[in-house]
Amino acid sequence: MFKTIRNAFKIKDIRNKLVFTFIALIIVRLGCQLPVPEINREYFSQWVTSQTSLGFFDTLTGGSFTRMSILALNITPYITASIIMQLLTIAIPKLEELQKDGEDGRKKIAEFTRYLNVALSLVESTAMAIGFGRSGLLIGGITFTNVVIVVATLTAGSTFLMWLGERITEKGVGNGISIILLVNIVAKLPSDFTNLFRTFVTGAASVINGILGAIVILLVTIFVIAFVVLLQSAQRKIPVQYAKKVQGRKMVGGQSSHIPLKVNTAGVIPVIFAGSIMQFPIVVSSFFGVQPARTHLWPKILYLLNQNNWCDFTSWGEFKYTLGLLIYIVLIIFFAYFYTSITFNPLEVSNNMKKQGGFVPGIRPGKPTTEYLTKVVNNVILIGAIGLTLVSVVPVFFAGAFNAQVSFGGTSIIIIVGVVLETMKQIESQMLVRHYKGFLND
After folding, report:
1. What pLDDT, on a 0 to 100 scale, did the predictor assign at position 344?
2. Which residues pair with 245 in a beta bridge?
3. Stated pTM of the model
């Protein structure tokens, strides 16, 4: 990886793209420090700290939500808008046609995504402004001017990040939105690891315990990262043979190819969906003053859904709330199948292969091929879902069993590894194109 980056800086075009990306990311981190007017930041920071359910959201925003900066919403509305548009593309035939129309259709869908991003930002910022005002977080209380200032600032910040992300994609390296998300998550890692070492190494009862704590932290971190790299890069290659046919005076076809089916076909989406559904009731209830607790029915349900209360082995009274972890696992597996089913259509793939004269060796074209692809996809999804579950559960287990509280989890690690791998592949491909261009010019 470091060798690739070093070689990339030797090529002027790629070096300029890397510098542009770096400057854009500096702007992002500076924006995360600028406060929103009319909000009591000190009181707000204390309020967020008490809301344990908002930890992952704060991680995705790079800590800007805790500081209530102008980029507090960050790119979360854009991510939500992109997911909604993906789902609507499957549900609405007109959008599906646009997606198949090539570059023009994709540009139109990207335009709809931008509009949806602004709409979601307006809704979220309005709800936040009113909710903060009722909680006493606005200076001067709820007034029309205060609400408008907060809504305009947060919406403008989210829209600016969307624009900057698209500029990074166009003039920099990698996917701009993913790069911004990566930097936000990485920005929280130093404080998390500092807290871990402070708790289990420097704060250990003895030197031996401190050394063992450091070894365990390093081994678990390396294992999770290595496992995620394997999960993200693993593929199931389905062989495809194309029949020979005559076109004009030439004999074409007869080549062998394959369909690359990623083991983790749904990426990080199942974990995000599952976590969002588990945390949604807690976040909504917090605005009405209802917190997770072990008294009364609804607070108990919220306590069950809160990840911070899972895998606590101190007593049966605490351990029984680990039932929420089982619900979380079921949701991850369900969304892995659900999301893959709407993004990969075995019937459509089978029909396209048949039109192009392709077939899977040993499988007849048509319905048998569709059934075979469906069976393979289901098996691959199960393996990927189990891998996702393992990565997601490891941080939760250590947080509950050993009180190793960190803001990042399996989702964050998957995002970091996935974005880094994709960005490095893009840099390598640009270097390869540049190399061939020079060879041809010579």
Report:
1. 82
2. 252
3. 0.77
Q: For residue range 360-417, list pLDDT tens digits in order.
A: 888 888 888 889 999 999 999 999 889 888 888 888 887 777 776 665 666 777 778 8
Position 154 scores a pLDDT of: 92
Q: What range defines the domain where residue 141 resides?
A: 1-189
- Report residue 3: phi and psi, to 5°: -65, -40
202, 210 in Cβ contact below 8 A?
yes
Write down the pLDDT at residue 252.
58
Q: Write down the pLDDT at residue 137.
A: 76
* Relative orientation angle of helices 367-402 and 323-343, to the nearest 10 degrees: 150
In a domain, 299, yes or no: no
Residue 396 lies in a domain: no
How confident is the model at residue 53, as a pLDDT? 57
What is the rounded CA–CA span in Å between residue 35 and residue 138? 13
Q: Is residue 358 part of a domain?
A: no
Cβ-proximal residues to 202 (8 Å cutoff; 6+ apart), any chain: 210
| Integer angstrom CA distances of residue 329 from 218, 270, 335, 382 | 26, 10, 10, 12
Nearest CA to 310 out of 392, 428, 236, 422 is that of 392
Query: Which residues in the chain come in under a pLDDT of 70?
Result: 1-2, 47-56, 244-254, 287, 404-410, 433-442
Q: How far apart are CA 256 and CA 161, in angstroms?
A: 44
Domain for residue 310, yes or no? Answer: no
C-alpha triplet 145, 290, 121: angle, nearest 5°: 40
Q: What is the count of structural domains for the chain?
A: 1
User: In CATH, what number is assigned to the domain containing residue 106?
Assistant: 1.10.3370.10
